[in-house]
Amino acid sequence: MIKTVIIEDEKPASRKLERMLSNFPEIEVVAKIESVEEGVAWFSENEHPQLIFSDIVLGDGLSFDIFEKTPTKGFIIYTTAFDQYTLKAFKLNSIDYLLKPILEEDLSGAVEKFKSFIPASNTTGSEDIKQLIRKEKSTLSRVLVKIGYNLKIVQTHEISCFFSENKIVYLQTAERVYPSDFTLDELEDILDEKKFFRVNRQFIINSDYIKNIHTSPYYKVDMEFQPQEEITVSRDRVKDFKEWLVG
Predict the structure, then answer these.
(1) pLDDT tens figures, 138-195
(2) Which residues lie across from 54 on neighbouring strands?
(3) Helix, strand, or coil (residue 65)
(4) What is the mean pLDDT of the chain?
(5) Residue 24 class from Cβ within 10 Å (0-12 exposed, 13-18 middle, 19+ buried)?
(6) Which domains does the chain possess?
(7) What is the enclosing helix (H) or strand (E) of 67?
(8) H/E stretch holding 89
(9) Helices 11-21, 104-117: inter-axial angle, 10-degree rounding
(10) How far apart are alpha carbons 185 and 239 in whole angstroms?
(11) Where in the sequence is 4-aspartylphosphate found (predicted)?
(12) What does 148-171 look like in DSSP terms, one character per residue?
């Protein structure tokens, strides 16, 4: 049997996931955890399971806090309404990232992915897991931004560019500019590299919004929507930029 733990602070969502997992006879749910505090206590006192399904945003913090305080060799499948935390999730033994509402086919795919890792699971350490999951790189499809006391979801296909200013990274859409919680280095790792390219230390651009490219006296890109500052391509990036443009 595959010992499994569910970390979810919403009881209906926890029960639903447990019902969905009942369709896999090889999976045994041994515990359901509702908070960071409860999770730290449980993982400190019990044998760690092979597989963990974990929501990210809990009532008393982020589930990441559990595994930072009680490191686990188990495989984690994160379940969440937002993919804002993709990068950090894949740094903490995650092998998949399911967006709510969870679909049966997505859950089945995640379980099958876990099974593909089982042969080495008894001797696999954190670094080995990280090597395995690097091949399962996820791409960011939407960003959660804060507007005053409200939250808004912005789809990445709506974003013309990301840019840094005064140590804050902003994203530009047709509508307006929004601040984000990411760094440009993090975004480089999780954005779709076929669509997004970092042209210099300050800008990452989306190919769908390129309006014009000047090549003399230096490479400069005009975007449909961009801040007032011009967007130039660093000299050491020009070759990669041209290759990226042609796919």
Answers:
(1) 578 888 888 887 778 899 999 999 999 999 999 999 999 999 988 999 899 889 999 9
(2) 7, 78
(3) helix
(4) 87
(5) middle
(6) 2-117 (3.40.50.2300), 142-242 (2.40.50.1020)
(7) helix 64-69
(8) helix 86-91
(9) 60
(10) 20
(11) 55
(12) TTEEEEEEGGG--EEEEETTEEEE
Dihedral Cα 234, 238, 242, 245, nearest 10 deg: -10
Residues 241 and 247: their CA atoms lie apart, in Å, by: 10
Q: What is the pLDDT of residue 243?
A: 95
- CB under 8 A, 24+ apart: contacts of 145-148: 145/171, 145/178, 145/179, 145/180, 146/179, 147/178
User: Rounded distance, CA 192 to CA 157, Å?
Assistant: 10
What is the identity of the amino acid at 202?
Q
Global pTM value: 0.54
Q: H or E segment at 107? A: helix 104-117
